[in-house]
Design goal:
By secondary structure, the chain is α/β, with parallel strands linked by helices. The chain has 27 helices and 29 strands. Strand 12 and strand 13 (about 320) form a beta hairpin. The radius of gyration is 25 Å and the shape is globular.
Length: about 700
């Protein structure tokens, strides 16, 4: 059993968990327990004043990563936003997957389309910016991901991991080191080889791809030799890799967070799929496939209004929403800049933007202190909601029933299950959807529903619950019983009574005619969207600052799920330390030894941390896990020390990827120096504000 799953159970009884509503009574982090009625009444009263004085657009929301995996929040936060006419809907998407979703919008016609690597059938996996041996996969779901990857080799295939670090996944297969933040150049080198050596699947391209000739013309000025120099991958190796991939019976290029959170994140994701398309590896067994699920997430997102790109743009930076979420980097200026639509009230749900956002840190803390109202739904007092006026305690996933809506559409082996609550809720905690529903009711809106008729029904006591919505989605989905019309189909009742441990629906992902999958007007994959030329020109025109010659990357840790579990002794023993990983070549060049602490400086700030010397890191690169450096209400996390690596990520307009609004968290330009002998304070970490900090 994964240690993270076991540790998640410990959250239930964590003594630092918030189990009663809290009201702020002093400086940030100073709270006292209050009743639910007192908290909700004051929230509704203050929220009403803000909306009356400044208008509906003065109230904003911010959704974190954990709520996306809870059925109730997924259904009701959108309804809450619609009921309150919330225009500014921020989230962590642009710190994670927005670039992938925008690429899907341009290529396939919808950001809700999520293709998956068909690992159980492929003969070649080319992986960039991902470490599924630790993360267990992202934008796809496979409990046995290690076995799936090993099966590729057992079938006589290959798994090549392109990464600046010899990650846990790379150690198990072929590792191809690459210069941090240069994936764009590496991918262009592959594409140029496919084009120059006529390795393109011409018949597939003729039938299913539009813009291929224009795309090829735009890439003509890029040579494989230049791409090799920029990426740090030898030209001969790059060419041979392209030949081998094209010759494979089936293959898939798969990239994740590391390719999204770069300066050219959207371009990276377009180029990844260009390789898949040019070799005919889209919607074929063993390639990059659209998949199948008992609940069609794509249709659900379209019907619910989540499948958006640039429906809204942030008021100061003008960055687009993606999948219904505005980028976190826009929250600070949208709070602090006066004028129409200025954010004066905020609800945060399961988020820690001070830690997770580029341009967060002190700038985010200062901005949050300017709000007239900030209330948070969460399990803990963290570095963000310690600045809130109220914290409303929520259930863990063991304390509520659930249908894993977000995961169903990502499975490589589609399954269906319903999980009941395992234990009763602790203390006075409530499910998020019930809290949102009650705030809407007390505000005179009936309930947290997008549909007016449901809000009217709620006023007379008739409520639609998450389980009702889930049952409807299951019963009307591809595996549903259609209310008795389809024999052998499923409903929640059938799952509860006959399949309490769930049911495997398919052993592999089915494929269908590609035209049935696409949402583009001509039903073809568009490999030359209008942004391509501008992004290639931006790539050409980008110049590195010689003052910051090294590059910082993040890294997953086997005992971390972002920072969710940093207060659990099972995964945070006293001996665990936060360290930067540095190549011995770079250490020698800077006079650094294993006993030293180092200072890492970017244009946005400086941090000091302990260091680990390892040849697993590509020279010129420093790897530092994210999510450390706590100062919230969780005592073990605070004692564990470390530093917030995102202090080094810039929130300046010129340092945000413009197409998807991505935070640049990978390939951050930095310099390093020897700080001092290793001391206890260095071990535990100490943030050092930079004298010209611009975050």
């Amino acid at each position: 059993m994964c240690v993270k799953a076991a540790a998640a159970a410990d959250v239930i009884k964590d003594p630092d968990r918030v189990v009663t509503p809290l009201k702020r009574v002093g400086a940030p982090g100073q709270f006292e327990a209050v009743s639910w009625d007192e908290a909700l009444d004051e929230i509704v009263e203050r929220l009403g004043r803000v909306r009356q004085q400044y208008g509906n657009h003065a109230f904003a929301s911010f959704m974190g990563n954990p709520p996306a995996f809870g059925m109730g929040v997924a259904f009701f936060l959108s309804g809450f936003q619609d009921a309150f006419q919330i225009k500014w809907r921020y989230g962590v998407n642009a710190d994670d997957a927005a670039a992938r979703q925008v690429a899907n919008f341009f290529l396939y016609g919808s950001p809700a389309i999520l293709l998956k690597p068909d690992l159980w059938r492929t003969k070649f996996v080319l992986m960039l910016g991902a470490n599924p041996f630790v993360s267990h996969g992202s934008t796809f779901s496979e409990p046995k991901v290690r076995e799936a990857l090993h099966s590729v080799v057992e079938r006589g295939g290959r798994v090549v991991v392109v990464d600046p670090r010899r990650s846990e996944t790379a150690r198990a297969f072929e590792h191809l080191p690459v210069r941090a933040g240069s994936d764009t150049w590496f991918l262009i080198g592959l594409i140029r080889t496919l084009q120059e050596e006529d390795l393109v699947a011409r018949e597939f391209v003729r039938k299913h791809v539009s813009g291929a000739e224009r795309m090829e013309a735009l890439l003509q000025s890029f040579s494989v030799e230049e791409c090799a120099i920029r990426s740090g991958v030898d030209a001969a190796v790059l060419r041979q890799l392209a030949r081998d991939f094209a010759a494979a019976e089936s293959g898939v290029v798969y990239g994740r967070t590391g390719t999204c959170t770069q300066r050219f994140g959207t371009l990276n994701n377009l180029l990844q799929d260009f390789v898949n398309a040019l070799t005919g590896n889209i919607e074929r067994p063993g390639g990059y496939v659209f998949g199948w699920a008992a609940v069609d997430l794509e249709k659900f997102a379209e019907a619910g209004g989540f499948a958006t790109y640039s429906k809204q743009r942030t008021r100061v930076f003008g960055h687009p929403d993606v999948f219904g979420m505005l980028p976190s980097t826009s929250l600070v200026p949208d709070i602090t800049t006066e004028g129409p639509g200025q954010v004066r009230a905020l609800v945060t749900v399961g988020t820690n933007a001070v830690h997770s956002s580029a341009g967060g840190g002190k700038a985010m803390e200062d901005a949050l202190e300017q709000l007239d109202l900030h209330f948070s739904l969460d399990l803990y007092v963290n570095e963000t909601n310690k600045h809130a006026h109220f914290i409303l305690p929520v259930t863990s996933f063991y304390e509520r029933e659930d249908l894993p809506i977000a995961a169903l559409g990502l499975m490589l082996r589609p399954a269906l299950w319903w999980s009941p609550a395992v234990v009763p809720p602790r203390g006075e905690v409530r499910e998020e959807w019930k809290i949102l529903q009650e705030i809407a009711r007390r505000s005179g809106l009936g309930g947290a529903y997008s549909v007016r008729a449901l809000r009217w029904l709620a006023r007379i006591g008739l409520h639609v619950t998450p389980s009702m919505i889930a049952d409807l989605l299951v019963r009307t989905g591809p595996a549903g019983d259609w209310f008795g019309l389809k024999r052998g189909g499923y409903s929640l009742k059938k799952l509860r009574e006959h399949h309490p441990d769930g049911v495997l629906l398919k052993h592999e992902l089915p494929t269908r005619p590609l035209r049935q999958r696409l949402h583009t007007p001509d039903k073809r994959i568009n490999v030359c969207p209008p942004i391509l030329e501008d992004e290639l020109n931006r790539l050409r025109g980008h110049l590195d600052d010689p003052a910051f010659p090294l590059r910082l990357i993040g890294m997953r840790e086997i005992r971390s799920q972002n920072s969710w579990l940093h207060n659990i002794p099972r995964v945070m023993p006293s001996a665990r330390r936060h360290v930067a990983h540095l190549n011995p070549i770079d250490a020698t060049a800077h006079g650094i030894t294993a006993d030293d602490a180092i200072t890492i400086t970017s244009k946005s700030g400086s941090i000091r941390t302990a260091v680990k010397l390892t040849a697993d890191i590509f020279p010129g690169t420093v790897a530092l896990p994210h999510g450390w450096g706590h100062s919230g209400g969780w005592k073990i996390a605070n004692r564990s020390g470390g530093v917030n690596s995102n202090i080094l990520a810039s929130g300046a307009l010129e340092d945000i990827e413009p197409i998807a609004g991505m935070s640049i968290l990978t390939g951050i330009p930095i310099r390093i120096s020897r700080a001092a002998e290793m001391t206890e304070s260095a071990l535990l970490g100490a943030n050092m504000p930079h004298e010209s900090a611009t975050s």
